């Protein structure tokens, strides 16, 4: 799904090419090539076998830190070590 409708074959191909390209770049030098990819929290990207097999299911964070009511969530995938990048829950602010 993309904005509430099915992705076209070209859109899906582009999304998957991006994921595979980032993953292959990361593997060239994992100690130096970090990635952080994000998508809407409940988007269909989380079901894609190409994404899950490489990056896992991802983590979900609430992206609203300013008290807005929509409470939009984001799913992210990262190779950044947890001691370097520590995601914070928006409720902490």
Write the layout of secondary structure elements.
Blueprint: H1 9-28, E1 36-40, H2 49-55, E2 59-62, E3 73-78
Antiparallel strand pairs: 1-3, 2-3
Helix pairs in contact: 1-2
What does this 3D model show about the protein?
With 93 residues, this protein is of the alpha+beta class. The protein has one domain (9-82). 4% of the residues are buried. It is flat and about 35 Å long. Strands 1-3-2 form a three-stranded antiparallel sheet, with no helix packed on it. The chain has helices spanning 9-28, 49-55; strands spanning 36-40, 59-62, 73-78. Helices cover 29% and strands 16% of the residues.
Brief sketch in words of this structure:
The protein is of the alpha+beta class. It is 29% helix and 16% strand.
Descriptive keywords:
93 residues, three-stranded antiparallel beta sheet, flat, single chain, 2 helices, alpha+beta, 3 strands
């Amino acid at each position: 799904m993309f904005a509430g409708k099915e992705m076209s074959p070209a859109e899906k191909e582009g999304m998957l090419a991006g994921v595979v390209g980032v993953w292959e770049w990361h593997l060239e030098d994992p100690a130096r090539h970090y990635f952080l990819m994000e998508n809407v929290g409940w988007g269909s990207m989380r079901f894609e076998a190409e994404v899950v097999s490489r990056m896992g299911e991802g983590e979900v964070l609430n992206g609203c830190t300013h008290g807005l009511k929509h409470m939009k969530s984001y799913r992210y995938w990262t190779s950044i070590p947890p001691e370097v990048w520590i995601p914070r829950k928006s409720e902490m602010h």
